[in-house]
Every structure is written in structure tokens, then in C-alpha cells.
Design goal:
heterodimer, A: alpha/beta, four-stranded mixed beta sheet, 20% strand, B: alpha/beta, fumarase, five-stranded mixed beta barrel, globular
Chain lengths: 277, 186
């Protein structure tokens, strides 16, 4: 294979494999912190039982080195490239190679299918998959965010009237009203506001990578309103329907107000690895 | 408050009729995984295991060799309208996440229960499991029917045999809370 002697290809494939493996098995520290905080504060007995299972599951996955969830997701990948590294097809191929290796060795559930024939590729790659977002940066890093379907399927986008900024909170709350227990609450909600139709959705997903152990007053207000729904862990009722709301904004057309909500299950999995060339 | 835990072993019988929604259960014994495709196959070709007192687990596990690697529950609502025939043949319980609709709630009355297992807790689940066999392997790993022996899997009764459904209670609460939110926002 032509990539064999390319050290950048090998390094990026290895780093992608390691990031996917880590993300599937262990949660980021800020995510763990908010789960533990909520588990201690929850008052519903049934919901406390759910938190107990979640905390035990996190320990078992860590101790046995197995994925937290059998839905090991669809691969969403973010790359930062330092100034001296050109963006080539080889980098995309390297990420896909890392995903294939992770599928075999972690192992991951083969989730990626053709959208129409539903034929499974069996290696978690496909047309346009892994999803790869590239940005310039100081260092060469790869971030893997495996996205499970239960939560992704509950996500929504809307084009609000520009005069209805007040409607943003309601749209987020309504998203969880419709979602109920399906996205495996308590959830993390990434909210993209502004930009274009597609950019808002991208921002909503990127917002899930922000630290979740702090919220702005606006984010906290939305989070509190979502929690008043009382859907609770797994839809069984309780104080915590959402663990955090994170917002990312972009400039938008004066006649537009796109709002996207990307729902993420309690297992807000993502790992960043520096690629050593 | 310490909640009591009911210990049950499959095959299940009339003891399921005594369970109450919200009660904690630890389940042991054989269960069978089944998702959408397996339900359609069983409807067409018959059930490949003894359905009497059996428990169906809505789950598409990760299996490696003879081991269950990860086996959390999948969304049960997808099977809402295709599960009644299983109760008719003697199935006594379902395990899944997110609850099931009003059709199933009625079908369970006087016959069986729906257990909720915490979504995403696939590692915890597999630590309570031993793989015993497989049916319909041609459907692929996620859709095949896996026979799995449970050792005290921690569950909660989501829907009991008397029409009590804690998912429905939470849903009603959410609807009322949202109506209240909308009134204030106006």
C-alpha cells in the first residue's frame, strides 16, 4: 500500500485509533464530574438507581477495558493541522484507517450502512464517513467524537424568525419534550445559534466538545428549564434531564436565526490525541 | 431510603403479576436478545426458543468470539407494534430502554411486565452475562437473537401488569411543565 512509508499517515492512523479507543472506554474528566455531581444531588429513588448503574458502568468499562456502550457510534473527527502540514487526501485516508483498526481491535460495533440499501460496510467507514472537520492550529491533533444514534436521532434544527430570539430556549426545551427517554438522558445539549442552516448544526455538535462543568447564565437558564420537564434519567422521571447545555454562536444573515440542538447521551464521549510525527 | 430488591429467575411465571412499577429487580437466568429484524423473522418463522416464561431483551450487543463485550439496551419503542405475538406465546417480560407505547401497556395487563435497564450501561450489563448461544446469526451481530445467561442484572419495573407505567407518568409531567413554560414565555 502506498501509505506504508508515509510517517504522517501512520502517525495519524495510530492517533485516530488511540483516540477512538479511549473515547469508547473512558469519559472526559469534566463529563465525569458533572455526572457524579448530579448523581449526588438527584432526589428521585428510581433516578438514583439509574445513576448508580451509570457510575458502576463507568467503573466496569474502565476496569475491563471495554466500551461504555454497545452503540460505539458513528465516527465524527476533528483535526487541527499546524502551519507546516498541508491538507491532503492522505490525511483523510489515515483517519479512515484508524477507524477501521479501532473497529477490529477495540472492538467497535460496525454501525455504518448505505443510507438507501442499508448495506453494512462492516468497518465503520463509508461515503463521507468518518465525518472529518479540519481547522488550522498550532499543533497536530485528532479528536474523535463517537456519536450514538439514540441521541443523534433526537436532534433538531429550526430557522426562527429573527425577532424571536426569545424562542431559542423554548425550542431547546421542546426538543427534549419530544425526545423523552430516547436519547438516554440525562443528556448534554449542544446548541448552535446563528450561521447558516448547515453551520448551525456543525456548531451544535462542536459545542459538545466545550468544557461541560461550567455554564454561562444563558446556558444555565436553558438547562434549568429543560430540567423542569422532569423526564429524568432514561425517561423514568427525576431531577436531571440535562446535565449541561453548551452554546456556540456564529454571525448570521439579518433576516435569519438558525438554531440547532445536537442531543448527546450521558456518555458524552470524546478524546483528543496529539499526533506525534 | 433503602429500596428493597426483588430477585427473580427465568423462566418467569405468575410472580411477575406481583411486581409494581418503580420496583427494583435483579434478574437471573436465560434471556434472548431481539431487535426489529428478529421480531419480523419470529413472526414469520416461529420462535426458535421455548417462549414459555421467557424474557426478551431489546439489545444489539457487541460479541467477540464466545464473549459478550457490550450489551446495553436499545430503544424499545421501535418494537411497540410488533411485540404482542410474543406475549400470546407465553413470553413474560421485556427488557429495554425508553419504555413502550400504550398498545404494549394494555397487552401486558394481567400477563407480563416491562423492565427498564439503564441505557448506555453496556459494560455493566456484560459483566452480568454469559453467552449461551445464537439464533438467526445471518441477520448480523446487532439483529441476531443471542441467548444470554444473566446473573443478577439490576433492573427497574417500568410497566407493570396492572397498567402502571412510570415512563407515562414522566411524560405527562413533562407535557404539563412545557405547557406552563409556554404560558410564561408568551
Amino acid at each position: 500500500m502506498k501509505h506504508e512509508n508515509d510517517p504522517v499517515f501512520t502517525a495519524l492512523a495510530d492517533a485516530t485509533f488511540m483516540a477512538y479507543r479511549e473515547a469508547a472506554i473512558r469519559l472526559p474528566p469534566d463529563v465525569l464530574k458533572v455526572i457524579r455531581r448530579a448523581a449526588a444531588a438527584e432526589t428521585s429513588p428510581v433516578a438514583r438507581g439509574e445513576f448508580e448503574n451509570i457510575l458502576k458502568n463507568i467503573d466496569v468499562a474502565e476496569n475491563l477495558d471495554v466500551p461504555l456502550c454497545q452503540d460505539t457510534g458513528i465516527p465524527v473527527v476533528y483535526l487541527t493541522l499546524p502551519p507546516d502540514l498541508p491538507l491532503t487526501q492522505s490525511l483523510y485516508d489515515a483517519v479512515a484507517e484508524g477507524v477501521r483498526r479501532a473497529t477490529r481491535e477495540v472492538p467497535l460495533r460496525p454501525n455504518v450502512v448505505d443510507p438507501l440499501t442499508r448495506h453494512n460496510t462492516n468497518d465503520n467507514t463509508g461515503a463521507g464517513i468518518p465525518v472529518i472537520h479540519v481547522k488550522p492550529g498550532e499543533t497536530f491533533t485528532v479528536t474523535v467524537l463517537p456519536k450514538g444514534a439514540g441521541a443523534e436521532n433526537s436532534s433538531r434544527i429550526t430557522m426562527l424568525l429573527p425577532s424571536h430570539v426569545y424562542g431559542i430556549e423554548g425550542f431547546v426545551v421542546e426538543t427534549m419534550l419530544h425526545a423523552e427517554g430516547k436519547p438516554c438522558p440525562p443528556v448534554f445539549l449542544g446548541v448552535g445559534i446563528g450561521g447558516t442552516f448547515d453551520l448551525a448544526a456543525g456548531l451544535a455538535k462542536e459545542a459538545l466538545l466545550l468544557p461541560v462543568d461550567t455554564m454561562s447564565a444563558f446556558e444555565q437558564q436553558i438547562c434549568d428549564s429543560v430540567n423542569k420537564l422532569g423526564i429524568g434519567p432514561m425517561g423514568l422521571g427525576g431531577d436531571f434531564t440535562a446535565l449541561a447545555v453548551k452554546v456556540k454562536t456564529a454571525g448570521c444573515h439579518t433576516a435569519s436565526l438558525p438554531v440547532a440542538v445536537n442531543v448527546q447521551c450521558w456518555a458524552n464521549r470524546h478524546t483528543t490525541v496529539e499526533v506525534k510525527r | 431510603m433503602k429500596r428493597t430488591v426483588v430477585h427473580l429467575r427465568t423462566p418467569l411465571g405468575d410472580e411477575v403479576l406481583n411486581l409494581k412499577a418503580g420496583e427494583r429487580v435483579e434478574l437471573s437466568g436465560m434471556v434472548y436478545t431481539a431487535r426489529d429484524e428478529a421480531h419480523l423473522r419470529m413472526q414469520k418463522d416461529g420462535i426458535p426458543f421455548d417462549p414459555n416464561g421467557a424474557v426478551i431483551y431489546h439489545c444489539g450487543p457487541v460479541i467477540q468470539g464466545k464473549k459478550v463485550i457490550a450489551a446495553g439496551p436499545t430503544t424499545s419503542a421501535r418494537m411497540n407494534e410488533i411485540s404482542g405475538f410474543l406475549l400470546d406465546t407465553g413470553v413474560r417480560a421485556f427488557i429495554g430502554k425508553g419504555g413502550m407505547g400504550s398498545t404494549m401497556r394494555k397487552q401486558l395487563e394481567g400477563r407480563g411486565v416491562y423492565f427498564a435497564f439503564t441505557g448506555g450501561c453496556a459494560a455493566l450489563a456484560s459483566s452480568h452475562m454469559t453467552l449461551k448461544g445464537v439464533f438467526y446469526e445471518d441477520l448480523g451481530m446487532a439483529e441476531a437473537v443471542w441467548a444470554i445467561e444473566l446473573d443478577r442484572l439490576p433492573l427497574v419495573v417500568g410497566i407493570d401488569a396492572h397498567g402502571n407505567d412510570i415512563f407515562e407518568a414522566a411524560r405527562q409531567h413533562a407535557k404539563e411543565a412545557f405547557a406552563e413554560f409556554s404560558r410564561r414565555a408568551r
